[in-house]
Design a protein that fits this description.
Length: about 140
């Protein structure tokens, strides 16, 4: 009877160990996935970045619908009121919209954003991602 009890104990022990290992594997996989999102900037919501008064959000949405011209005019009008990192994100959107029409200006704007964006900025992963496009 004691050998059956010992055998049952080892079976239960093996099941618990397997369950713990599976939980640990899921945790590591989730952490890896989240870290990758952070490195690529996928977890950033531009509207939640600091640096822009909420009153300007509606006018920015209208400017974005008007493409590069709308963003250029909007940045000229409201650019002084906006701070990084939000301003950098908007200027990167402007660069992408402008790339086909005026690549030289797009590269210049990108270069200015790149120069003032530090490695700990939430916009930095996007700058790194776009580097190949604008260099």
């Amino acid at each position: 009877m004691s050998t059956k009890l010992i055998g049952a104990f080892f079976v239960i022990l093996a099941l618990v160990a397997g369950w713990k290992m599976a939980a640990y594997y899921k945790q590591v996989a989730e952490e890896t996935r989240n870290q990758k999102k952070v490195e690529q900037g996928e977890d950033i919501k531009p509207g939640q970045l600091e640096g822009m008064p909420y009153q300007l959000q509606q006018s920015l949405a209208v400017a974005e619908q008007n493409g590069a011209t709308g963003l250029r005019d909007w940045l000229r009008t409201f650019g002084a009121q906006i701070k990084d990192p939000r301003k950098a994100w908007i200027e990167l959107d402007y660069c992408l919209a402008l790339m086909r029409e005026d690549p030289r200006t797009a590269k210049n704007v990108f270069q200015s954003v790149k120069e003032r964006t530090s490695t700990n900025s939430p916009v930095y992963p996007r700058v790194r991602q776009l580097e190949r496009t604008f260099e």
